[in-house]
Amino acid sequence: AIYAVVNLVIFYPTASAWTWVAFVFSSVVYGTSYRSMSSMAKPSFTEDGSLADGGIDLNMEQGMAE
Fold first, then answer.
1. How far apart are CA 52 and CA 20, in angstroms?
2. How far is CA 12 from CA 20, 23, 46, in A?
3. Which SS3 state, helix, strand or coil, does residue 46 take?
4. pTM tops 0.85
5. Could you tell me which residues come within 8 angstroms of residue 44 by beta carbon, excluding any fewer than 6 positions away?
6. Fewest C-beta atoms under 10 Å: which of 7, 11, 28, 49?
7. For residues 8 and 17, what is the distance between their CA atoms, to the nearest angstrom?
8. pLDDT digits (tens, 9 = 90+) for 30-48
9. What is the C-alpha to C-alpha distance for residues 7 and 14, in angstroms, rounded to an integer?
10. How far apart are CA 57 and CA 37, in angstroms?
11. CA–CA separation, 15 and 27 (whole Å)
């Protein structure tokens, strides 16, 4: 994030189109990954408010963190 701010804001005149394309692409990949993992770890509840599913443990042996 610091690199993006320095390169794309402070040195705006020298930033090429490829720099912007790479920044947008990496931001989309980061956002998609975060949203995917967030939805997998989200708990679900029944109508009476009790926990039905606690979501997936992202640190399990075969999970996302390994």
1. 44
2. 10, 13, 51
3. coil
4. no
5. 51, 52, 53, 55
6. 49
7. 10
8. 999 989 888 887 888 889 9
9. 8
10. 10
11. 17
